[in-house]
Structure formats: structure tokens, C-alpha cells
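User: We ran a pulldown and think these components assemble together. Before we commit to crystallization trials, I'd like a predicted model of the whole complex to look at. Sequences follow.
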Amino acid sequence: GESVGLHLPTLSVQEGDNSIINCAYSNSASDYFIWYKQESGKGPQFIIDIRSNMDKRQGQRVTVLLNKTVKHLSLQIAATQPGDSAVYFCAERVSNAGGTSYGKLTFGQGTILTVHP
Amino acid sequence: GAGVSQTPSNKVTEKGKYVELRCDPISGHTALYWYRQSLGQGPEFLIYFQGTGAADDSGLPNDRFFAVRPEGSVSTLKIQRTERGDSAVYLCASSLTVGGRYNEQFFGPGTRLTVL
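Assistant: Here's a predicted model for the assembly, 233 residues in total across the polymer chains.
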């Protein structure tokens, strides 16, 4: 039978549209969140991050929104381009009370974004 | 400058064999991380090093997996008595430090391990 893991959420958009990719994170103690882009055959590439004391952060063409109440992250990509086609992962990290990072990232399942010219 | 490099890019082995996967971090990065990524999944944490010591090895699935970083730079992930379930892409990442709160992890391209 098929693996549940192969059924990644998918998002198909037309070039120039805005894209919104969502992620539910698991640990209420997480205080740092990152979005990564992964193209086929490559490692994850950092896109944008946000700290838990913020609810919005903007980069170039990308915006991350954080809702700690419902443990939800979203990544908005403006004017999506074919080169944005990839798998997008959110990741979370926990720091201890002293502010030292525990280092390890916990990744979500990922969303496949396909941009049609 | 050069990014994180991993060798080999692909490794095919037979069940029961021993394999070593190598990671060269970005020069000057004191923290090094290993993750495993199965098809259709996000990367899963295995272990990370701060300098030469393993700061957190809680993600290693069992005692067949071991990693070293003897000089605080290159790291080797070792898998004994490989099983078909070990087949995955093994990703390495490095960051400038771990002590700072928000240190970006830079990932290598991964080693695709296939156990027949």
C-alpha cells in the first residue's frame, strides 16, 4: 500500500499569484520558527525566520505569520515565480530558560508548491 | 565561500553491511547537525555536536548509529549492520554557534543511502 508520508499537501498556483503555505507546529515551548525551501536533490535552504515574541516578519517577497494561540505558522510568497516551485517545510526549535538553544530543529511534513508559467 | 559538503552523494549497500557518511561543515562553524529524511517527510533530527562533543544524541534511533567529530570540524556518521529501513537521505547542517539563540543552520546536499 501507499505510505501516508507520500501524500504531502500540495499547492498549485499561476505565475504572479500570491501563495500561502500553512503549518501547524507541535510544541508550545518552541520559541523560534523557520521556513525552509527544498528543491529536488538539494538540502533545505533557509527562507525566513521568526521569533516567538513576534507575530509577523517580512522579507523580500515573503512574509511569515505566527499565531501562538493556535500554534500556526504561515508563509506568504508574493508574485510567485516558477523558480519558487519546491517543497516548503516549517521547522521549530526550543530554547531553555536561560535562552540557550537546544539546537535541534523539528520539521513539519512539508508542502509541495508548483508554480505554472 | 564553500557551503556544507557531504560525501558520498549516493551510497548503495547490502543489508548487514557497515557504512560511513562524511560531512564537511562550513569553515569556522562550531555546531554540526545530522538529520535523516525519508521519502515524503521532513528532516528528522539525529544528533548535534558543539565542537568535538555530542551535545544531543537523542535522535539516534538505536545503537547501530554512531557519529564522531574528533577535531571539531569534519564529522562521520557510522551505521552498523544496516537494515532496509535505514534507506533515506542523510543531511548534515552546520551553524556558526549553538550558544546564541537564533543561529541559522546551513544544510548540505545530503547523502542518499540505499540498503538493498
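The beta strands of chain A are 10-14, 19-24, 30-38, 45-51, 56-58, 62-67, 72-77, 86-94, 106-107, 111-116. That may be worth checking against your pulldown data before setting up trials.

User: Thanks, that helps.
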